[in-house]
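Hello,

I think I submitted the fe (ii) ion job twice by accident. Can you confirm which output corresponds to this input? Input:
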Amino acid sequence: MTGKLRKELARCAEERMSEKRFLHTESVAREAVELGRIYLPEDLDGLETAAWLHDITKDLDHGRQLQLCGEFGIMLDKYRAQSPGVLHAITGAETAAALFPDLVTGNVKSAIRYHTTGREDMTVFESLIYLADYIEPTRRHESCRKLREYFYSDVSGKDMKEHLADTMIKSFDITVGYLLESGSLIDPDTISARNWFVRMKNGGLFREFQERLQ
Ligand SMILES: [Fe+2]
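Support: Only one job matched these inputs. Its output is below.
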Protein backbone atom coordinates (compact mmCIF):
# COMPACT_ATOMS: atom_id res chain seq x y z
CA MET A 1 0.00 0.00 0.00
CA THR A 2 1.26 3.49 -0.77
CA GLY A 3 2.13 5.71 2.16
CA LYS A 4 -0.36 8.27 0.83
CA LEU A 5 -3.30 5.86 0.93
CA ARG A 6 -2.28 4.53 4.35
CA LYS A 7 -2.28 8.10 5.68
CA GLU A 8 -5.68 8.80 4.14
CA LEU A 9 -7.22 5.65 5.66
CA ALA A 10 -5.61 6.33 9.04
CA ARG A 11 -6.87 9.92 9.04
CA CYS A 12 -10.38 8.75 8.16
CA ALA A 13 -10.30 6.35 11.13
CA GLU A 14 -8.68 8.79 13.54
CA GLU A 15 -11.27 11.51 12.86
CA ARG A 16 -14.11 9.17 13.77
CA MET A 17 -12.96 7.44 16.93
CA SER A 18 -11.48 7.74 20.39
CA GLU A 19 -7.72 7.52 20.79
CA LYS A 20 -8.03 4.07 22.35
CA ARG A 21 -10.05 2.75 19.45
CA PHE A 22 -7.64 4.31 16.98
CA LEU A 23 -4.72 2.50 18.62
CA HIS A 24 -6.74 -0.72 18.35
CA THR A 25 -7.46 0.02 14.67
CA GLU A 26 -3.78 0.65 13.96
CA SER A 27 -2.98 -2.64 15.60
CA VAL A 28 -5.67 -4.48 13.59
CA ALA A 29 -4.14 -3.04 10.41
CA ARG A 30 -0.70 -4.43 11.37
CA GLU A 31 -2.20 -7.76 12.43
CA ALA A 32 -4.25 -8.12 9.23
CA VAL A 33 -1.10 -7.65 7.15
CA GLU A 34 0.77 -10.13 9.34
CA LEU A 35 -1.98 -12.75 8.88
CA GLY A 36 -2.22 -11.85 5.20
CA ARG A 37 1.49 -12.63 4.72
CA ILE A 38 0.72 -16.18 5.90
CA TYR A 39 -2.56 -16.78 4.10
CA LEU A 40 -3.28 -14.23 1.39
CA PRO A 41 -0.06 -12.48 0.34
CA GLU A 42 -1.70 -11.21 -2.86
CA ASP A 43 -4.39 -9.37 -0.89
CA LEU A 44 -2.36 -7.33 1.60
CA ASP A 45 -3.68 -3.95 0.44
CA GLY A 46 -7.31 -5.07 0.62
CA LEU A 47 -6.79 -6.55 4.06
CA GLU A 48 -5.13 -3.41 5.34
CA THR A 49 -7.93 -1.25 3.88
CA ALA A 50 -10.63 -3.33 5.57
CA ALA A 51 -8.71 -3.22 8.86
CA TRP A 52 -8.35 0.58 8.88
CA LEU A 53 -12.06 1.04 8.18
CA HIS A 54 -13.66 -1.80 10.16
CA ASP A 55 -14.63 0.26 13.23
CA ILE A 56 -15.26 3.70 11.69
CA THR A 57 -18.83 3.90 13.02
CA LYS A 58 -18.30 2.08 16.32
CA ASP A 59 -18.19 5.25 18.40
CA LEU A 60 -21.61 6.43 17.15
CA ASP A 61 -24.50 5.95 19.54
CA HIS A 62 -27.27 3.43 19.00
CA GLY A 63 -29.75 6.02 17.72
CA ARG A 64 -27.31 7.29 15.12
CA GLN A 65 -26.54 3.71 14.05
CA LEU A 66 -30.25 3.09 13.46
CA GLN A 67 -30.56 6.40 11.63
CA LEU A 68 -27.63 5.47 9.36
CA CYS A 69 -29.26 2.13 8.56
CA GLY A 70 -32.34 4.08 7.48
CA GLU A 71 -30.23 6.38 5.31
CA PHE A 72 -28.52 3.42 3.66
CA GLY A 73 -31.87 1.66 3.13
CA ILE A 74 -30.93 -1.30 5.31
CA MET A 75 -33.82 -3.29 6.76
CA LEU A 76 -32.94 -4.60 10.21
CA ASP A 77 -34.40 -7.74 11.70
CA LYS A 78 -35.25 -8.10 15.38
CA TYR A 79 -31.79 -9.35 16.37
CA ARG A 80 -29.70 -6.72 14.68
CA ALA A 81 -31.82 -3.70 15.62
CA GLN A 82 -31.10 -4.46 19.29
CA SER A 83 -27.42 -5.31 18.95
CA PRO A 84 -25.19 -2.22 18.91
CA GLY A 85 -22.13 -4.44 18.45
CA VAL A 86 -23.51 -5.85 15.23
CA LEU A 87 -24.99 -2.56 14.01
CA HIS A 88 -21.57 -0.89 13.80
CA ALA A 89 -20.40 -3.62 11.44
CA ILE A 90 -23.41 -3.02 9.17
CA THR A 91 -23.14 0.77 9.19
CA GLY A 92 -19.33 0.59 9.04
CA ALA A 93 -19.38 -1.42 5.81
CA GLU A 94 -21.84 0.99 4.18
CA THR A 95 -20.05 4.12 5.40
CA ALA A 96 -16.65 2.81 4.28
CA ALA A 97 -18.08 1.97 0.84
CA ALA A 98 -19.60 5.45 0.56
CA LEU A 99 -16.27 7.08 1.50
CA PHE A 100 -14.02 4.86 -0.64
CA PRO A 101 -16.25 3.44 -3.39
CA ASP A 102 -13.34 2.18 -5.47
CA LEU A 103 -11.64 0.36 -2.61
CA VAL A 104 -14.47 -0.93 -0.48
CA THR A 105 -16.14 -3.57 -2.62
CA GLY A 106 -16.38 -7.37 -2.57
CA ASN A 107 -14.32 -8.98 0.18
CA VAL A 108 -13.20 -5.66 1.69
CA LYS A 109 -16.80 -4.58 2.25
CA SER A 110 -18.05 -7.98 3.41
CA ALA A 111 -15.07 -8.39 5.78
CA ILE A 112 -16.12 -5.14 7.51
CA ARG A 113 -19.75 -6.28 7.53
CA TYR A 114 -18.96 -9.63 9.16
CA HIS A 115 -15.95 -8.75 11.32
CA THR A 116 -17.98 -8.99 14.54
CA THR A 117 -20.22 -11.99 13.95
CA GLY A 118 -18.62 -14.06 11.23
CA ARG A 119 -21.05 -15.85 8.95
CA GLU A 120 -21.70 -19.15 7.25
CA ASP A 121 -19.48 -19.71 4.23
CA MET A 122 -16.93 -17.08 5.33
CA THR A 123 -14.11 -16.38 2.94
CA VAL A 124 -10.51 -16.62 4.08
CA PHE A 125 -10.24 -12.83 3.64
CA GLU A 126 -13.22 -12.26 5.95
CA SER A 127 -11.78 -14.74 8.45
CA LEU A 128 -8.46 -12.88 8.59
CA ILE A 129 -10.10 -9.52 9.38
CA TYR A 130 -12.32 -11.17 11.99
CA LEU A 131 -9.28 -12.83 13.56
CA ALA A 132 -7.03 -9.74 13.37
CA ASP A 133 -9.72 -7.81 15.25
CA TYR A 134 -9.90 -10.56 17.86
CA ILE A 135 -6.23 -11.23 18.55
CA GLU A 136 -4.39 -7.96 17.84
CA PRO A 137 -1.90 -7.43 20.67
CA THR A 138 -3.45 -4.34 22.30
CA ARG A 139 -6.47 -6.49 23.29
CA ARG A 140 -6.16 -7.01 27.02
CA HIS A 141 -8.93 -9.52 27.62
CA GLU A 142 -7.60 -12.89 28.66
CA SER A 143 -9.62 -14.75 26.03
CA CYS A 144 -8.10 -12.60 23.25
CA ARG A 145 -4.58 -13.14 24.56
CA LYS A 146 -5.19 -16.87 24.84
CA LEU A 147 -6.51 -17.09 21.30
CA ARG A 148 -3.51 -15.12 20.03
CA GLU A 149 -1.19 -17.46 21.88
CA TYR A 150 -3.03 -20.48 20.50
CA PHE A 151 -2.84 -19.21 16.93
CA TYR A 152 0.83 -18.21 16.95
CA SER A 153 2.07 -21.15 18.99
CA ASP A 154 1.11 -23.59 16.30
CA VAL A 155 0.92 -21.66 13.07
CA SER A 156 3.77 -23.50 11.43
CA GLY A 157 3.41 -26.76 13.32
CA LYS A 158 0.51 -28.30 11.37
CA ASP A 159 -1.58 -27.74 8.30
CA MET A 160 -1.95 -23.97 8.48
CA LYS A 161 -5.37 -23.95 6.83
CA GLU A 162 -6.71 -26.43 9.32
CA HIS A 163 -5.13 -24.33 12.05
CA LEU A 164 -7.01 -21.26 10.83
CA ALA A 165 -10.29 -23.21 10.95
CA ASP A 166 -9.47 -24.51 14.45
CA THR A 167 -8.69 -20.98 15.63
CA MET A 168 -11.95 -19.67 14.18
CA ILE A 169 -13.95 -22.40 15.96
CA LYS A 170 -12.21 -21.58 19.25
CA SER A 171 -13.02 -17.89 18.84
CA PHE A 172 -16.72 -18.57 18.26
CA ASP A 173 -16.84 -20.93 21.23
CA ILE A 174 -15.33 -18.23 23.45
CA THR A 175 -17.68 -15.56 22.08
CA VAL A 176 -20.82 -17.68 22.46
CA GLY A 177 -19.78 -18.64 26.01
CA TYR A 178 -19.29 -14.99 26.90
CA LEU A 179 -22.63 -13.95 25.35
CA LEU A 180 -24.45 -16.71 27.23
CA GLU A 181 -22.82 -15.73 30.53
CA SER A 182 -23.65 -12.07 30.10
CA GLY A 183 -27.24 -12.75 29.01
CA SER A 184 -26.67 -11.04 25.67
CA LEU A 185 -28.29 -11.74 22.34
CA ILE A 186 -26.40 -14.14 20.11
CA ASP A 187 -26.48 -13.11 16.48
CA PRO A 188 -27.65 -16.03 14.31
CA ASP A 189 -24.67 -15.40 12.01
CA THR A 190 -22.29 -16.27 14.87
CA ILE A 191 -23.96 -19.64 15.39
CA SER A 192 -24.01 -20.27 11.64
CA ALA A 193 -20.34 -19.35 11.35
CA ARG A 194 -19.32 -21.64 14.18
CA ASN A 195 -21.35 -24.54 12.83
CA TRP A 196 -20.03 -23.97 9.34
CA PHE A 197 -16.40 -24.24 10.44
CA VAL A 198 -17.20 -27.36 12.50
CA ARG A 199 -19.03 -28.99 9.58
CA MET A 200 -16.20 -28.04 7.30
CA LYS A 201 -13.65 -29.70 9.55
CA ASN A 202 -15.75 -32.82 9.96
CA GLY A 203 -16.63 -33.28 6.33
CA GLY A 204 -15.78 -32.57 2.76
CA LEU A 205 -16.44 -28.88 3.04
CA PHE A 206 -12.93 -28.42 4.38
CA ARG A 207 -11.54 -29.04 0.92
CA GLU A 208 -13.61 -26.13 -0.34
CA PHE A 209 -12.04 -23.78 2.22
CA GLN A 210 -8.58 -25.06 1.34
CA GLU A 211 -9.18 -24.53 -2.33
CA ARG A 212 -9.93 -20.87 -1.69
CA LEU A 213 -6.45 -20.53 -0.30
CA GLN A 214 -4.80 -21.79 -3.44
FE1 LIG B 1 -12.35 -3.73 16.02
